[in-house]
Amino acid sequence: MVRHVIEFWFDFSSPYAYFASESIEQLAAETKRAVVWRPFLLGVVFPKTSMAPLMQMPIRGDYARHDCDRIARLLGVPFRLPESHPYAAVKVSRAHYWLEKYRPQHVASFAHAVFRAHFADGRDPSEVSVMADIAEALDIPSDELLEAIERDENKAILKQRVDEAIGKGVFGSPFFIVDGEPFWGWDRMPMMRQWIEKGRW
Amino acid sequence: MVRHVIEFWFDFSSPYAYFASESIEQLAAETKRAVVWRPFLLGVVFPKTSMAPLMQMPIRGDYARHDCDRIARLLGVPFRLPESHPYAAVKVSRAHYWLEKYRPQHVASFAHAVFRAHFADGRDPSEVSVMADIAEALDIPSDELLEAIERDENKAILKQRVDEAIGKGVFGSPFFIVDGEPFWGWDRMPMMRQWIEKGRW
Predict the structure, then answer these.
(1) Which of A83, A129, B56, B173 is the most buried (most CB within 10 A)?
(2) What is the pTM of this model?
(3) How many beta-carbon contacts under 8 Å exist across A and B?
(4) Beta A5-10 vs B5-10: how paired, if at all?
(5) Smallest Cα–Cα separation from A130: which of A80, A79, A87?
(6) What is the pLDDT of residues A17-30, one digit of tens each?
(7) Does B169 lie at the interface with A, CB-CB under 8 angstroms?
(8) How far apart are alpha carbons A74 and B171 in whole angstroms?
(9) What are the chain B neighbours of A66 within 8 Å (beta carbons)?
């Protein structure tokens, strides 16, 4: 095997990605894979498939709100949709890739903190003060992080990753790729596990 | 309990509904429920949520074709998308509700036969000759069935069911309702089973 990873593509503002983020590391550990955290921007990808933000869609949005509440109860994770939902995840995503490059040991904990700030604590991670709080709590210098997300280098990395997502056919969040095999949706994680454990069927 | 049923809403032309149809009776038996087969028309429902036929959507269609192939292999059911896909399920759906009213013992076997004619045998159930073949194979008088699907009474029943689907928030196929609880998608059948077995969580 060349690549023992699970690519975990997500938009930080996606509730189903939040649920996935709470169990992907366990799934990866049990299947002997490493998680590659790959934030992208649904706002860029959605127009290519004529989709819109889920919670704003008629009928489907109502279902999704109800569905997220029952999934949260099932998983036992805190969850509420804040008024700031959905937020633009551009800056936190740039911060993510800056961390990946310069402070990779913080990637997973930062991602969890961003998801939880929004979906558990009702905060808006697109606000720099929220991002600064998250950084400080993880001993990441917030001034460095806030400076980094405005640098062209880090803007370019995110753009590259979004293009990569589009190139790989990623159209929703969460979206997993395992040895080239795509799995869309939180509810496909059991199938992904089966795929890894059985190999191609 | 007043209602010990699983409402199984589907469009006959939906591949994920076909997969669901191949296991819904076993799930129902194991959870001590009766299946209520409820065909409706995605073509009427989709515009309300700005959706389009899945296989015709860019990117998502490619994923769905790949996904259906692997699900079929996983389940061990024959599957191929015929050139006639997607077909208009209006007439077979009218036939379904006519059977429900006058020959209820044929409802499930007719539904299976329609699904398999399209997804296993590559036929187009919107053609009256195909419908006639399906009827004859089940000892349903095909002349009566073909006459019934043009009667206003049976057109009205289908229209009523489609309105009912819309009223209940059904927006995709398959879509299950259990004691008022909605589950969208083939991949949510395990969650539905859990819901029934655990009760509300």
Answers:
(1) B173
(2) 0.94
(3) 55
(4) unpaired
(5) A87
(6) 999 999 999 999 99
(7) yes
(8) 24
(9) 182
